[in-house]
Amino acid sequence: MTTAMLETLREPLGEPFFVRALTAVVISGVTCACLGAYVVLRRMAFVSTALTHSILPGVVAAMLLGWSPYLGALGAALLTAAGAAWLASRRDTSEDSAVGVMLSVMFAAGIALMQQANSWRDFAGLLFGSVVSVGPEDLIVIGLTAAVVLIGLRLLHKELELASFDEEYAHLLGARPGLMRVVLLALVALGAVSCVRLVGALLTTALFVIPAATGVLLGRTLPQVMAWGSACAVAGGVVGLYLSYYFPAVPSGAGIVLCCALPYLAARLIAPRR
Amino acid sequence: MFALLPTLPYASPEKPGCGGIAILATTLTARARADGPAAFRDASFEIPCGCRAALIGPNGSGKSTLLRVLAGLTPAESGTVLIGDSSPRTGRRHIAYLSQRPHLTAYFPLKLRRLVQMGTYAHHGWLEECFHGDHAVDLALERMGLTDLADRAVHTLSGGQLQRGLIARAIVQGAEILLLDEPYAALDQSSREIIDRFLFSQRQHFTVLMATHDPADLARFDRVLEMRNHTVITQKACEGHDHRHA
């Protein structure tokens, strides 16, 4: 029994594509869960959805022009963040509707560009994720973006924590809460770019929200929230990957997100009510 | 990692000393909201160092706006304010401001000890981790009667305990000027006594300006500023207490 189980776990590890996918899932899971702690606590889930969805036109445009899809994705995400900030800078426009406008416009532009390319099938991986196609160069990009995000979060931990908890006091001390928000949006854009290959533009936001929401239920301090979130993302990611390996009918992106939701449901049931 | 990085303060260093006057306002005009009417016009007053000053006036008279202008959180439309030797701006480590309703993120995973420790950030800057300051945090918690609650999550504290926690943060910050917006609202007797003991102790060397609605309170203050007809009238003046700034 035990031998059979070990063999079940060991068999996919013989495939280089599976090892690359596993590495990517672990790195991206930890990155998104740590960033996601701020996304969830600051109620930025909708902004993160807009940033991740807006990657679509960036990647399609980059592919049509022959540029790196990662650069296109990052450019589109940053453009969305800047556009939403500009629209919301008027007193009569709420941030919520500014983000909604940018999300719809960018996603519609993506669909129009896909029509230009005349091949929807090529972009299925972009929309829904294709973890099995993670190549060595993708791993380098994922590793680099994860390093930038995690080092940024570590260096600015006390300012990000302060600005997220008590914006007025951060302002009083001169710790620039407005700048911290911009930094956080840029880091979310970077994080989204690193995991679009794994779960697709439509589901990337789930990696930011679900593990971190689990962490918020279980952790009593911000580092604990990040640790629980990372554990949930890594466990969900690894189990989801094995699931789609043995059941090819389950796409890897959907498998990962569904497996991340299970620890959330468990935490929701067992975590003490606050 | 942090040891290798340069020290970058949040704001440029402040000029030391206050020359006897902690807060000096001259023909000050400000609005609560940029598109709203003026909360007060041409307000002029001074508060000497070490003075305990009360700020009274009916609801909507502009008390909160005045405190926010002094803290540098709301810009003045015209007139000048001098806090010590310089104009108000954020990044001033010697000013603490307690809002009537602190806008804290709900259910944020933070223990009371960490909240109080945030006061030490005023003495750090960017790219610097603060591992020290534990002794100051312990002392401040003890003075506010919060030692037993140090490891409690902030969102489980009562209104009074939270208010005391925020004052403990101001103590750790080493603030010399405390701007308090109705700190006694919704406080029980024991919380009120603990805060009173701290604010009105003769051994404390700071200046206080407190918005209050309680007429019975006023006898304890050295100076009373009243917001009336959209300006500030000084009702009772004190000579200041130089001994407090010894």
Report the average pLDDT across residues of chain B. Answer: 82
Largest sheet of chain B: 6 strands, mixed
Give the radius of gyration of chain A: 19 Å
- Kindly state the percentage of residues in helix of chain B: 10-25%
Distance between the termini of chain A: 42 Å
Classify the oligomer: heterodimer
Question: Strand tally of chain B, please?
Answer: 11
Order of helices and strands of chain B: EEEEHEEHEHHEHEEE
- Proportion of beta-strand residues of chain A: under 5%
**How would you spell out the order of helices and strands of chain A?**
HHHHHHHHHHHHHH
Estimate the mean pLDDT confidence of chain A: 88
Beta-strand proportion of chain B = 25-35%
Unreliable stretches of chain B (pLDDT < 50, length at least 5) are 240-246
Major pleated sheet of chain A: none
User: Class by helix and strand content of chain A?
Assistant: mainly alpha
Structural class of chain B: alpha/beta
Shape descriptor of chain A reads: globular
Plain-language structure description:
Chain A is mainly α. Chain A is 81% helix and 0% strand. Chain A is built from 14 helices and no strands. Chain A has helices spanning 2-10, 16-41, 45-53, 55-65, 69-88, 95-117, 124-128, 136-155, 157-165, 167-173, 177-199, 204-218, 222-246, 252-270. In chain A, helix 2 (16-41) packs antiparallel against helix 11, helix 3 runs parallel beside helix 6 (95-117) and helix 5 runs antiparallel to helix 6. The longest helix of chain A is centred in the N-terminal third of the chain and has 26 residues, at 16-41. The radius of gyration of chain A is 19 Å and the shape is globular. Chain A starts with a helix and ends with a helix. Chain B is globular, with a radius of gyration of 18 Å. In chain B, the strands form three sheets. Chain B has a six-stranded mixed sheet, with helices on both faces. By secondary structure, chain B is an alpha/beta fold. Chain B has helices spanning 63-71, 112-117, 134-143, 159-173, 189-199, and strands at residues 8-9, 21-31, 38-48, 52-56, 78-83, 95-98, 125-126, 177-181, 207-211, 223-228, 231-236. Chain B starts with 7 loop residues before the first strand and ends in a 10-residue tail after the last strand. In chain B, strand 8, helix 5 and strand 9 form a beta-alpha-beta unit. In chain B, 43% of the residues are buried. Chains A and B meet through helix 9, helix 10 and helix 13 of A and strand 6 of B.
